Amino acid sequence: MKSAVTISLVSEASSGPFVFHEDLSLACETAKLLGFDAIELFAPDSVTVPLKTLHTLLSDNGLKLAAVGTGAGWVRHKLTLSSPDRAIRKRALEFVDSMQEFAGAFQAPVIIGSMQGRWGDDQSKSVTLELLGDSLLQLSDKANSFNTCVLYEPLNRYETNLINRLDEGTEFVKSLAPNIKLLADLFHMAIEEVNLAEAIRTAGPSIGHVHLADSNRRPAGYGHTDFTPIASALKEIGYSGYLSAEAFPYPDSHAAAEATIDCFRKHFRL
Ligand code: LER
Ligand code: MN
Questions:
Q1: CA–CA separation, 83 vs 119, rounded Å?
Q2: FRET label pair with 258: which of 29, 130, 205, 227, CA 20 to 30 Å apart?
Q3: Residues enclosing ligand 1, CB less than 6 A?
């Protein structure tokens, strides 16, 4: 398994669960210093960070790009991939498509979290899931051309009413395409799953990425999640992807990153 740490460059998410905020260069230096394998970027769009700049920062610090979050499409532009409005869905697809071009240059996948939307008003759950599935399928074609996948993230009930647990998520992604994988976020799982390790075992090879946080979304070690059975389950299913710290910068960014890498070395490094 490999370690990663999140960096948000989206001002609307300045109080969000990201270990580093705003200073990409400092975040990369700290990630290298602490021994992370990669960074995960929550970027406002596909142009704010020029490809060349990111390429230099990554190679100077010996880091990979683990994944790129697309939530800015929702927090900044109120776009979702399952909107009843065809024009909004089209813009949402265009937004994620541009993020895929950006991420694809580093062979990294994009994450579909808040861009999935929710059902309600005049649109049923089944129609909403169908529209989301169609959008994900379109994105998966592009991901194939970059030899990567699309990461679909079940979120807790306060963030979506579509899919909250890994078992429902597994059924959904399996019905779509082999390169649409699940993002297992340990914070959302702490709210929604009965047993985190069992949920991981059941999802098995459908898991393509993991967000590492404690029960309260503080960095690993600052809550009550037991990482031992979680690590055993990931080893059992042969998971070799990233554990990416998506947690609040508590007590500060540096200490949060340090706590994460300590937890990673203790439990997850194979
Ligand atoms: C949001 O709660 C989250 O977990 C993000 O990874 C979604 O993009
Ligand atoms: Mn997450």
A1: 9
A2: 205
A3: 69, 71, 111, 113-114, 153, 155, 159, 185, 211, 246
> Rounded distance, CA 151 to CA 167, Å?
15
How far apart are the CA of 145 and the centre of ligand 2, in A?
A: 25
Quick check: 270 pLDDT over 80?
Answer: no
Q: How many A from CA of 16 to the centre of ligand 1?
A: 9
The predicted pLDDT at position 252 comes to: 98
pLDDT at residue number 161: 98
For ligand 1, atom 3: residue with the closest CA: 113
Please answer whether residues 224 and 192 qualify as being in contact, where contact means their C-beta atoms are separated by less than 8 angstroms: no
The residues that are catalytic are 153, 246
Predicted confidence (pLDDT) at residue 101 exceeds the cutoff of 90:
yes
* Alpha-carbon gap, residue 230 to 259, rounded angstroms: 17
- Check pLDDT > 90 for residue 172: yes
Query: pLDDT per residue over 155-171, tens digit each?
Result: 999 999 999 999 999 99
Summarize pLDDT for 15-67 with one digit per residue, the tens: 999 999 999 999 999 999 999 999 999 999 999 999 999 999 999 999 999 99
Which residues are registered as beta bridge partners of 21?
8
d(CA 65, ligand 2 centre) in Å: 16
| Atom nearest to 188 CA in ligand 1 | 4
